UniProtKB/TrEMBL annotation:
Protein name, entry field: DUF4395 domain-containing protein
Domain of life of the source: Bacteria
Keywords: Membrane, Transmembrane, Transmembrane helix
Species for this entry: Streptomyces paradoxus
Keyword presence, Membrane: yes
Residue span, DUF4395 domain: 3-132
């Protein structure tokens, strides 16, 4: 079942805000929350992520009906990519080196910002590239 394209963009906007606060404050606890949010999105899909649930319950009812939909698999894969970067960032912030925390969190922030501001999902594009490569390999 396809999903409303506004949901993942809303999630990306919240994610970008959370990651920006992490970079400013160095809060490993806040990055741990974001890592958990990515984990839930990767495991259950973006509709079952905390930000997806917030969108469905608090934001979408206030908007008009969706006009564009997308397959759920690319955004779900993007959650996996976000999980990897947030996990690396969490390791950097808690165990060191500190530059790893900053770099991984900054990369995740850049990807989330691109999705939120421009609708360009890097993780989704990686998913689609992987599918094209797999089809050609067959």
């Amino acid at each position: 079942m396809d999903i409303d394209v506004r949901g993942p963009r809303f999630g990306a906007a919240v994610t970008a805000a959370v990651l920006a606060v992490v970079l400013v404050t160095g809060s490993a606890w806040l990055l741990a929350w974001q890592t958990l949010a990515f984990l839930l999105g990767a495991a259950g899909g973006v509709r079952r992520s905390p930000y997806g649930l917030l969108f469905a319950r608090a934001v979408r009812p206030r908007l008009g009906p969706p006009t564009a939909f997308e397959a759920p698999e690319p955004p779900r894969f993007a959650q996996v990519v976000g999980l990897l970067f947030a996990g690396l960032g969490l390791v950097g912030y808690t165990l060191g080196p500190g530059w790893l925390g900053l770099a991984a969190t900054g990369a995740a922030l850049a990807a989330a910002f691109l999705n939120a501001a421009f609708g360009y999902c890097l993780g989704c594009e990686l998913y689609l590239l992987g599918r094209r490569v797999a089809v050609r390999a067959e």
